[in-house]
Amino acid sequence: MADASSDPAEPEEGTVESAVRRVEPDESEELSTEELRRRVEDEYDFEDFTPADMKRMSPEEWEAVFDPDTWITGPELLDRVEADTKRRVLDRDVFARVERMANPDRVVAYSDEGYAVVYEDGSIEGEGTVLRDLKPSVALCSMDSYEAPDLPDEDLLPRPMEVPQGSGEFGNLMIQLVAGALFLSGAVLGGAALFTADLGVIAGTAGILFLVAGGVLFFTVANARLSDRFRAEEYRNRLRAVGMEDDELPEWLPESARETPGLDRGAAADAPDGENRD
User: Exposed end of the chain (fewer CB within 10 Å): N or C?
Assistant: First the structure.
């Protein structure tokens, strides 16, 4: 997910930058700030502003409609980011483990495809899909007009062995019953074709069609169950990769994404996967 508060080009992974930093206006832009503001207000629904809308906005549009002097920072920003990210995990919009860490106070989210660390001043570092997913959330949560959700109380991710083998078993059972009925009907019609001279061809043809339809439905159920099994195992592997089985952090996470006693902001920014923000 792209960040509308940064340059159009995707930043290099592993850098530290502010998700709510100011962007200098383009001197060559044709529209005035007031004209651009009116256009943006007509195009976007700010009563229901989402990360998807944030992705569509350009830096100039962002600067035209949002006042940087009203941006929320500090512990309140981290509270909002933590609640918003956890809600997105519960809604299956983001896959990540989300933790609040101290020294310095920060929100850490990580998965098997990257990580992100959010600090009190709105700066964010990381890499991969988690970084791209969290940038719009940080920008939204820094806006006073954005209503962050309440912090969820339930577990965000299940243990690997708690993942069901598949879903929709009731639907599969219904399809199997229909397939069985078609098979039985096909067998009856096929048998009738052997003993009925007048309707033998018609009954035989109908019986074959019923048998084929039943076979297709049985194949569909078998394929769906196999796909469910593969998806469940893939999800279990992703959960294991983020330590949901043994509660161990992934080895590749930098120090800034770990609960390290005495770690200060300078040390976090000097970690191998990040560099200080200008």
Answer: C
Contacts of 208 (CB under 8 A, 6+ apart): 186, 190
Both 212 and 259 in a single domain? no
Could you list the residue range(s) of the whole structural domain that residue 66 is in?
16-157+252-269
Q: Kindly report, residue by residue over 9-40, the tens digit of the pLDDT.
A: 444 444 444 444 444 444 434 666 677 777 87
CA angle 175, 177, 180 (to 5 degrees): 110
State whether 172 and 147 are in the same domain. Answer: no
Tell me the residue ranges of DSSP E strands in the chain. 16-18, 97-101, 106-111, 114-119, 123-127
- The predicted model scores a pTM of 0.62
Q: Could you tell me if residue 145 is inside a domain? A: yes
State the Cα torsion 41-46-52-55 to the nearest 10°: 50
Q: Given strand 16-18, what is the order of strands in its sheet?
A: 16-18, 123-127, 114-119, 106-111, 97-101
- DSSP reduced 3-state for 125: strand
Residue 6 domain flag: no
